[in-house]
Every structure is written in C-alpha cells, then in structure tokens.
Design goal:
There is one protein chain. This protein folds into three domains: 107 residues, Chitobiase/beta-hexosaminidase domain 2-like (Chitobiase, domain 2, 2-Layer Sandwich), CATH 3.30.379; 323 residues, Glycosidases (TIM Barrel), CATH 3.20.20; 175 residues, Alpha-d-glucuronidase, C-terminal Domain (Alpha-Beta Complex), CATH 3.90.1330.10. The chain is built from 20 helices and 15 strands. It is of the alpha/beta class. It starts with a helix and ends in a 10-residue tail after the last helix. An eight-stranded parallel barrel has the order 6-7-8-9-10-11-12-13. A five-stranded mixed beta sheet has the order 1-2-4-3-5. Helix 13 crosses helix 14 and helix 18 runs antiparallel to helix 19. The chain binds beta-D-glucopyranuronic acid. The site of beta-D-glucopyranuronic acid has 10 residues, from loops.
Length: 678
C-alpha cells in the first residue's frame, strides 16, 4: 500500500513536472488540487479495483482515483480504508457517460455501462471527497443531460486566439504532430473532470489550411491524446475551402464537384481520425464565405457537409449572422433567416445559436430562436471567455449568466435548456500557467462544464464546489467567497451596461467604454446604433412602434420581457424622465446603478482581503491585484458613461453623485491598439 502511494506521488510529480508540487499554487492544478483532507473521517477510501473493462479510459479512471486519493489522504487509511470498486456493467438503461455511486458489499461502488461513465463517476467521487464529504455518505445517480458538451476554441494556427485573454493558443500548432506537449493530457483531464466531451480546436473565422493534410496530421495527434479522456475533436471548416485549397472555381454547395471534394475531404479525415466529431461552420456572417454567395440557403450549405460526413459525425452550423446590407434590426436577423428553415436541415446538422440575439453581452434576453425551431436540433452557444465582461482582468463569475440563459422560459414548450440538444462554450483557455488568464476565470470553465452536464445545477452550488476544490474547503472561506462570486456578474452589468444597455464597449477590441462611437462603416458596429441616446431619451425601440423584435418571442414571453426593467433599454426607447417602478426617473436611476456597480467591486476587494488566511500568498496576491484593476476600470466605465450621457441629454448629474474624474474628451481620447484578443 505504502509503495503504491509512493509510486502515485512520483507519478504526480512527473505529470506536473514543469511546475512541480512545490510551486503548485500557481493555479496550474485548477480544481484538481486534491488538497489533503485534514480531519479525514474514519471512513478513509482504500484501494481501487477495476472490473468489467480494461480499456484505456477505464484504466485512466482507476489511475486517476488511485493518484488523487493518495493526495487527498496522504497518510493512508488505518486498516486499509473503504475499498472502491469501479465496475463496468451491462445495463441498457444506463446511457453513455451515466454512472451510479453507492455503498456496496465490500466498499463503495462506481457503476457504469460505459467507460466514460466510469471516468465521470471517478471524477464525481473525487469532487465529493474534495469538498470534504465522507466516503460512506456519497450516493450519486447521474446521466448527462446532453450527449454533446463542447468547447469551441477560437484559436488560430499562428497561435493567436481571437478574444483570448490567457496568452497564446493552448495548442502548439507549430510543433504538432511530432511533439505533443504534456499539457494536452492535463487539458483533456481537466475537461473530462467536468464532463466536456467535444472540442472544436480552431477559430470559427477559419483558415482553410486546417483541412490540408499537414494539419489533419496535427489534428490527429490531438485526437489520439484526447480520445482516452472521452473527448472527440471537431474542426471549424471554411466554407470556401474547395476554392481556397481544392483548386475548384466555386464553393457552390449544389455543384457536384464541390460535393465530391467535401466527401473526399471527409473520407481523408475519417481515415486518419475514425472518431472525428465533425465540422463547425460560420457562414455568411461578418464577411465569412457561405452558401449565400451562390444564392443558396444555410440549409443547402449545411446539408451538403452533412452528406459528406454521413453518419460518422455532426455538422454544427452557426446561426450568428447579420449583414451590412441588411437594414433590419441586428437583433432580428438570425431569426428572420433561420426560423423559416426549420425542418429543412439534415438529421446530423445542429444549428448553433448564441444565448442572446446580439452578442454575448453582460445581459441579454434569451435568443428568440430557442423553442422556435422544433424540427431542428439546436445548440446553445455561451461565451466562457469574457470578451464583453472585462476580459480576464475583471472578476465576473458567469454561473448566474449561464443559469439565467438556460433557465429562461421560451413559452414554446419549455426552458431554453429543454429546447436544445447540444451545449457549446467559447473557451477561455490559453498558454498562461493558470490556464484562463485569471484564477477566478477557471470557475467559468468549470461552471460551463457542470451546467452542460446538468443545466439544472444552481450556480451557487457550482461556485461552492469549485471554490472548495480550488482554494479551501473551510466553511468561513466558502461563506464569504460564494456570495462574492454570485454578485460579481451583476456588478459588471451595473458598471458597464445597466438597465438593458448593450454593446457600448470600445470598438474592435471591446475593451473599456465608448458609447460615443458613431463613425464606423457598418451601422451595427457603432455603439450609438444600440443605445440611440439623444436629448430626449435613450434605448432601442423593439416594440411594434420600432423594430418589433419583440414579436419574435411567444406573446406571453414578449409581455414579460417588456415588463422587465433590467432589459428596459434593450426593448424600449424612453425619455430620460421615464419613471421606474422604484419611483426614480431614468436619469436618477442610471447613476445609481453605475455607483452600485463600482461599490460592489470595492466590496469584492474588501472581502478578498479578509480571505488571505485561507489562500496561498501567490494566488491571493494575484486576485487582489486584479480586483484593484477592476475597481479602477469600473470607475472608468462609470465616469466615461455618465460624462457621455450627461453631454447627450444636456443634463447635469443628479445631486449626490460625484462628477466624472475627467472631462468627456479625455475618455474619448483613450486608445488601446495593443488590447489583447482582437
Ligand atoms: C463576436 C466576436 C468576434 C467573433 C464573433 C463570432 O467579437 O471576434 O468572430 O463574435 O462569434 O462576438 O463569430
């Protein structure tokens, strides 16, 4: 036993060789730290035995448990402890990935009818133990809500990550396939620990070179590494690839030569990667090529690729579309284009819809396509990387945003979560040592995985289990840090886009406030398009007197959305004197919201300062520094926004609110050409 534990510790040292156990508190180990359980109950876990399978995945489940238990309980168990039995059984009622954990005759059993079920069961047991639960008290019976739970990387082959704030691409494209960094295994393991089972490894603004033989070899090397962890690899495909790299004169989806090219390309990929997941496609959106270039529909394009792939995989076709030539309210365009195509997509096509109708804003209503395409498989796309919520420098736990989006009632046969079959998240990982650019952004990766597994999990529970595993299971710590996390996204909404404002961020890079921008080529690239503020009032009229985007929702839902003051300026253009339910006029309420956001960030800083005794110095200091940056930037957002609203409305700030620190022209003169991620 002792020797086995020693071996496991050695293994651990090797696996984290670049950091080493001594420097482990740099965040590299994520929520898989397995900090020793100090007051281990008498019921300490003992040896792990595996039966019913010896697949690479089952062996990983066993080894993962063995290793992690030696970390959680470094002193072992008196009398050998409670044995853990990993059992692969035949049970047609148990879906892929499902598992049960319960006391058994001779210990505690993790039972599954699939190897991935054993792996997820192993991680689930560790999650419970990692929170300090006693082994004998753990009973779980779980199955994933969706068969496909995927990350979308916006990584480019040159290592740059679009909207990436955690360094360079996590994939070392240049050295692949000859060299596969050990980090790829740690990455797959982290994903598996939260149930993620698909990764799209390149940017939706795709380069056709990803489909060339030398890149297929690189993708294969990744697929081989990820496979034992239950993860399938997908590629973003550029629609014009037959022209770009195939020597054809057209990419028309109805052209027989184009169809044959894609079929041959799919065959070539499947020969190298038999379990290749499929293609993700951004077409006819923001200048990307697509079937409409040839007068064909999105369904024509998607179905052509679906035929090339056949039953071997899935085509995920994005509904994030809007066009410069189109005068229609941007919030309406995806619905207008896609809803009439309901029922026209092939069986292995999934239409992927962003959570809201514009673009990953701090707060949006849910996308009206959810529930409106009952004869089409829909995926929900969330953004884990915080393009519009302060990049990696602002602490914003996205659990509440995800929960709100998934739980929204579509009024058309269930919640958003109930109308989709796939969950996708735009990844926030990169080459940074702590994976996500900031320690707290790890929580967003974690929350995404947990909600893709079970969209009904309350986000405060997710925050708690993440914080316990990542920092400390001390109750005093958790009771302080969980409320801090839970209020953080609302704080961002307050100091950036209160009361339904949207897309008022700096142009292009989306860093910092710039509600005044009005000189860009396309109308919907300008913040003024979204807020429409003038001397009389502010907001986008999406009622019948305006764009009537409201009519895209079920009537009852439209009524509810219209009454929701948190979305006031999303749906309505109102006078600065508009009276809110709390009695304030809009002009009184706006500064109150901005100030509330700034104060909330100050409180987060104060709370975090009290938590120093619970967190290692390195991570504590990093978070504290970032919270100071956030405090400064929240103030900047508040001041710049109020200076501008004041100038447009011709009104002085109501009494009791401090004047902005600089004149409006100072804020307007700020430039950030070096902001990351653009
Ligand atoms: C926007 C991003 C842009 C992406 C686009 C998309 O600013 O970089 O390419 O979404 O999702 O939010 O395609």
């Amino acid at each position: 036993m002792v020797t086995a534990r020693l071996c496991a510790l050695l293994l651990l040292a090797v696996s984290f060789a670049t950091g080493g156990a001594a420097r482990a508190e740099d965040g590299y180990r994520l929520w898989l730290r397995h900090a020793p359980v100090a007051d281990a109950a008498q019921q300490t876990p003992g040896s792990v035995t595996l039966s019913g399978s010896d697949s690479p995945t089952a062996l990983l489940a066993r080894d993962e448990l063995t290793r992690a238990l030696s970390e959680l309980y470094p002193h072992g168990a008196a009398g050998g402890g409670t044995p853990i039995l990993l059992r692969r059984v035949t049970d047609p009622a148990m879906r892929d990935g499902a598992f049960r954990i319960a006391p058994a005759e001779r210990g505690v059993a993790i039972i599954a009818a699939s190897d991935t079920g054993l792996l997820y069961g192993a991680f689930a047991l560790l999650r419970e133990l990692g929170q300090g639960k006693a082994i004998g008290a753990i009973r779980l019976d779980e199955a994933p809500a969706y068969t496909l739970r995927m990350l979308n990387h916006w990584d480019n082959p040159d290592g740059h990550v679009e909207r990436g704030y955690a360094g360079r691409s996590i994939f070392d494209w240049w050295h692949l396939p000859g060299y596969v960094d050990a980090r790829m295994t740690d990455y797959a393991r982290a994903n598996a620990s939260i149930g993620i089972n698909g990764v799209v490894i390149n940017n939706v603004n795709a380069r056709a070179m990803m489909l060339e033989p030398r890149y297929i070899a690189k993708v294969k090397a990744l697929a081989d590494t990820f496979r034992p962890w239950g993860i399938r690899v997908y590629v973003s495909a550029r629609f014009s690839a037959p022209r770009d790299i195939g020597g054809l004169k057209t990419a028309d989806p109805l052209d027989p030569a184009v169809r044959a090219w894609w079929k041959a390309k799919a065959d070539e990929i499947y020969t190298a990667i038999p379990d290749f997941g499929g293609f993700l496609v951004k077409a006819n959106s923001e200048g990307q090529p697509g079937p409409q270039d040839y007068g064909r529909s999105h369904a024509d394009g998607a179905n052509m690729l679906a035929e090339a792939i056949g039953e071997r995989g899935t085509v995920i076709w994005r509904a994030f579309v809007y066009a410069a030539e189109n005068k229609e309210d941007r919030a309406k365009q995806a619905f207008t284009e896609f809803q009439p195509l309901d029922g026209k997509f092939a069986k292995n096509v999934v239409v992927q819809v962003k959570n809201g109708p514009i673009d990953f804003q701090p707060r949006e209503p849910f996308h009206p396509l959810f529930g409106a395409m009952p004869r089409t498989q829909l995926a929900m796309e969330l953004q884990i990387t915080k393009e519009y919520l302060g990049f990696a420098s602002h602490l914003a736990f996205l659990g509440p945003l995800f929960e709100e989006a998934l739980g929204a009632d579509t009024g058309r046969g269930g919640s958003v979560a109930e109308t989709v079959t796939v969950i996708a998240g735009v990844a926030n990982t990169g080459s940074d040592r702590n994976w996500t650019g900031s320690h707290f952004d790890q929580a967003n990766w974690y929350a995404f995985g947990r909600l893709a597994w079970n969209p009904k999990l309350p986000s405060d529970q997710i925050a708690r289990e993440w914080a316990a595993q990542t920092f400390s299971r001390d109750t005093a710590f958790l009771n302080a840090v969980v409320p801090m996390m839970m209020s953080s996204r609302a704080a961002v909404v307050d100091y950036m886009t209160p009361l339904g404002l949207a897309h008022v961020m700096g142009t292009g890079h989306h860093y910092g406030p710039a509600p005044w921008v009005s000189d860009l080529a396309r109308p919907e690239w300008n913040p003024v398009y979204y807020h429409r503020a003038d001397r009389a009032g502010i907001g986008f009229d999406r009622t019948p007197t305006g764009s009537n985007a409201l009519a895209q929702y079920a009537p009852d839902v439209a009524k509810r959305l219209l009454a929701d003051e948190e979305l006031l300026l999303w749906f309505r253009h109102v006078s600065w004197d508009h009276r809110l339910k709390n009695g304030n006029t809009l002009w009184e309420e706006l500064p109150r919201r901005y100030d509330r956001g700034v104060a909330a960030v100050a409180r987060m800083g104060a709370t975090w300062a009290t938590l120093a005794p619970h967190v290692d110095t390195q991570r504590h200091r990093a978070v504290a520094d970032f919270l100071r940056v956030q405090a400064d930037e929240a103030q900047w957002w508040r001041d710049a926004s109020l200076a501008y609203w004041s100038a447009v409305s011709g009104r002085a700030l109501p009494a009791g609110h401090a004047a902005p620190r600089h004149p409006l022209s100072w804020y307007q003169a700020q430039r950030f050409p070096e902001a990351p991620g653009e």
